[in-house]
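fyi for ur records
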Amino acid sequence: MSMRFIGITGGVGAGKSEILAYIRKKYPCEIYLADQAAHEVERAGTDCFAELVALLGEDVLDEAGEIHKGRMAEKIFSSEELLQQVNAIVHPAVKEFLLTRLEAARQAGAVNFFFVEAALLIECGYGNLVDEMWYVYAREEVRRARLSASRGYSREKIDRIMGAQLTDELFRQSSDFVIDNSGSLEDTYKQIDARLGALS
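which gave:
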């Protein structure tokens, strides 16, 4: 079979990490998280790093000369314009990084699936790049309980994050496959196996 490029997205607290952990264990695949890819492209020595430092100033650097996440976040948090400028630098760099990895995986021919996970896959235009987009859904009360228990988020913080994300309706409209992760993990795994089994 030819390798399938699959995007995985969903709201905060939907359980994307557990799903990816299962897929990584069970299927011949490569998995990339957009957040980790962003960390790679922002390292000292990259074009992205140089552009970010030019934009934000050298006071965002730590003692080792790398971008300090906390300092960068502080600057961006206070300015919507700055956030958009940073995204305009980071998002294309992440996309290029992932497409380079995708091409290398295709050439190597060792895996059946290449997964990319991010909350903003749809907004960043990955729908045009992937073979299929998966939406990990969980009922809102389930997500709230998870975020409160696992990350210790306050109700206000959860409200703020959820309010900034796509609605369930928009996620569904932009996706080829929906995983309902509101119930048991066993039930979720069955949905994944049925889908990947069909593709294999």
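Residues 80-108 form the longest helix (29 residues). thats all i got for now
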